[in-house]
Amino acid sequence: MPAIDIKDTKNNVVGSVELSDRFATLGKGALMHEAVVNYLANQRQGTHATKTKGLVSGGGRKPWKQKHTGRARSGSSRSPLWRGGGTVFGPQPRDYSYDLPKTARRKALFAAISAKIKDGELCVVDALALEKPRTKEMIGILKGLGLAGGSTLIILSAADRAVLLSSRNIPRVDVVQAADLNVYDVASHNRLLATKAAMEMLEARPL
């Protein structure tokens, strides 16, 4: 795996990092797709609901007697055949989540990061720290690193309130900790900005 340049926040190269072969995992498109579908399914609340004829209010009295009216028999005015009646086979609350093996999720994550590295869409900085929350300063850092425009995911090794507050008002810029990184986060952003410590945390993740 070729070395990746480490830069400072002014876009000066200050070193390099040699990544392991797990960051050269390519050709896992199907696995990445499965991991993204799994993530989105697990985010669904599944609270959608429709009323069957037993749940719609009213309809307790038989509209007319069974025979000798010349009309079709009917037992309730809340039949699905009637206006204002219930719904047949409508959606009901359910759990959409399902498990994907940890190994599969991790391989999909490294495959997604590998694709970003291959396309030159990963920028690694030695550190990313602000004295206090300042959106203008964060915008300047992103512009200096050539990350202005498009969507950018900032990957930190630990929570940093100043970085989070400085980034949250910038359109299409999100912040995530390396421990919480998943394949959907990587795939849904054009570029990644990771600190050296964050990359070391990802490197230490077991497969």
Notable characteristics:
6 strands; 6 helices; 207 residues; 2 domains; Ribosomal Protein L4, Chain: A; alpha/beta; six-stranded mixed beta sheet
Give the end-to-end Cα distance, rounded to a whole number of Å: 17 Å
Mind describing the biggest β-sheet? 6 strands, mixed
Average pLDDT over all residues: 93
Number of domains: 2
User: What is the 3D form?
Assistant: elongated
The CATH homologous superfamily of the largest domain is named Ribosomal protein L4/L1
Q: Helix count?
A: 6
Q: Please give the CATH class of the largest domain.
A: Alpha Beta
General description of the model:
The chain has a six-stranded mixed beta sheet. The two termini are about 15 Å apart. It is an alpha/beta fold and about 210 residues long. It is elongated and about 95 Å long. The chain has six helices and six strands. β4, α4 and β5 (about 175) form a beta-alpha-beta unit. It is about 30% helix and about 15% strand. The chain has helices at about 30-45, 100-120, 135-145, 160-165, 185, 195-205; strands at about 5, 15-20, 120-125, 150-155, 175, 190-195. It has two domains: about 5-45 and about 100-205, Ribosomal protein L4/L1 (Ribosomal Protein L4, Chain: A, 3-Layer(aba) Sandwich), CATH 3.40.1370.10; about 45-95, no CATH class. The mean pLDDT is about 95.
